[in-house]
């Protein structure tokens, strides 16, 4: 398949470009003292991460935007959607990161304000996906493995909005250990790249593998001990872009399987917060299900090393990605 060859070649080019621009970006972030605050209630081993430059997601988004515009936009204007959502989410994440630098009074943007902006970005994406040609992609179907494709009409829009917001935040919660979120995101984009290839969606294939190559380039600097952290600049952008790619393939119902670790991370936070509030109302003091949330911290506090948590979560992510592809190809 010639397009797959081009996509894989672009992934390699994306890796090289990201590594080349990565060093000056890391240096610039250090000069700007763009170090991340670390919450004191987290595992003690994470205190050493205080001051590690954040906003490393800039190197991923910059590479993907440049290579997509140069190699994947001519005759494929549909790529303006994932690129637009990528840029908008990266800007939102960067604004959030700026408020969480070491010495800042806050740990970032308020959750309510962030959700409002995420909802705005997701709403634009949902309507572009749903509206008929030439205004949008005219997508309103759900593909159910073993059963086939079914139209869900206008209900598609709120589902898309909620999914994009949820996945964006899920990747954000996962970004707590060196290389964890970046590695899992790369696996998920490989899975959807394969699914898109089987469908003949050449633009989505190329976009997905460009993202993979760029993420691998980022991991060059994010490998333990990390020289840079992707921050919300990267995590919000990755989650939103992944969800948009999933909807463009029509296989969005498989997203909780392909991104199972991301889902587990955000569910652990929801359960922990909800259970704490409920038990505080019931017993006068809050109780916890996990030692700490998101889920990766729970396993660290159980005694797993940071590397063990990351690599075991990666293994689960790879297996879930393979399962998702298998279900899509049935």
State the share of residues found in helices, binned by percent.
55-70%
Strand composition percent:
under 5%
The oligomerization state is: single chain
Count of DSSP-assigned helices? 12
**Uncertain runs with pLDDT below 50, 5 residues or more?**
none
Side-by-side strand order of the widest sheet: 1-2
Which class of secondary structure composition applies to the elements? mainly alpha
Cα radius of gyration in angstroms = 19 Å
Mean pLDDT: 92
Question: In sequence order, what are the helices and strands, one letter per element?
Answer: HHHHEEHHHHHHHH
Number of strands: 2
Shape: globular
Taking the alpha carbons of the first and last residues, their distance comes to 20 Å
Biggest sheet features: 2 strands, antiparallel
Outline the structure in words.
The protein has 330 residues and is an all-alpha fold. It is 67% helix and 2% strand. The protein contains 12 helices and 2 strands, in the order ααααββαααααααα. The mean pLDDT is 92.
Helix/strand layout:
Elements: H1 2-31, H2 57-71, H3 80-98, H4 111-130, E1 141-144, E2 148-151, H5 156-174, H6 180-199, H7 202-222, H8 231-249, H9 255-258, H10 260-283, H11 295-301, H12 306-329
Antiparallel strand pairs: 1-2
Helix pairs in contact: 1-2, 1-7, 2-3, 2-7, 2-8, 3-4, 3-8, 4-5, 5-8, 5-10, 6-7, 6-8, 6-12
Features of the shown structure:
330 residues, single chain, mainly alpha, 12 helices, two-stranded antiparallel ribbon
In short:
With 330 residues, the chain is mostly helical. The protein has helices at residues 2-31, 57-71, 80-98, 111-130, 156-174, 180-199, 202-222, 231-249, 255-258, 260-283, 295-301, 306-329; strands at residues 141-144, 148-151. The chain is built from 12 helices and 2 strands, in the order H-H-H-H-E-E-H-H-H-H-H-H-H-H.
């Amino acid at each position: 398949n010639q397009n797959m060859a081009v996509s894989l070649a672009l992934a390699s080019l994306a890796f090289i470009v990201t590594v080349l621009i990565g060093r000056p970006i890391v240096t610039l972030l250090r000069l700007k003292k763009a170090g991340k605050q670390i919450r004191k209630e987290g595992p003690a081993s994470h205190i050493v991460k205080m001051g590690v430059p954040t906003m490393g997601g800039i190197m991923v988004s910059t590479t993907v935007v440049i290579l997509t515009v140069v190699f994947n936009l001519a005759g494929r204007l549909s790529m303006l959607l994932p690129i637009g959502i990528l840029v908008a989410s990266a800007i939102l994440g960067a604004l959030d990161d700026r408020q969480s630098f070491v010495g800042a009074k806050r740990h970032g943007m308020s959750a309510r304000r962030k959700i409002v902006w995420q909802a705005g970005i997701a709403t634009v994406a949902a309507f572009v996906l749903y509206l008929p040609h030439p205004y949008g992609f005219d997508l309103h179907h759900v593909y159910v493995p073993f059963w086939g494709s079914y139209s869900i009409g206008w209900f598609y829009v709120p589902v898309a909005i909620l999914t994009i917001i949820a996945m964006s935040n899920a990747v954000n919660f996962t970004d707590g250990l060196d290389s964890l979120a970046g590695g899992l995101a790369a696996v998920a984009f490989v899975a959807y790249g394969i699914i898109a290839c089987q469908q003949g969606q050449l633009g989505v294939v190329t976009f997905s593998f460009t993202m993979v190559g760029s993420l691998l380039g980022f991991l060059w600097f994010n490998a333990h001990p990390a020289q840079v952290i992707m921050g919300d600049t990267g995590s919000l952008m990755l989650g939103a872009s992944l969800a948009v790619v999933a909807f463009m393939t029509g296989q969005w119902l498989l997203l909780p399987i392909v991104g199972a670790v991301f889902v587990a991370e955000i569910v652990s936070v929801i359960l922990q917060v909800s259970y704490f509030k409920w038990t505080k109302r019931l017993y006068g003091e809050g109780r916890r299900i996990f030692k700490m949330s998101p889920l990766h911290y729970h396993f660290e506090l159980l005694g797993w090393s940071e590397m063990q948590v990351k690599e075991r979560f990666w293994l689960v992510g790879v297996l879930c990605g393979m399962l998702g592809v298998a279900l899509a190809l049935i």
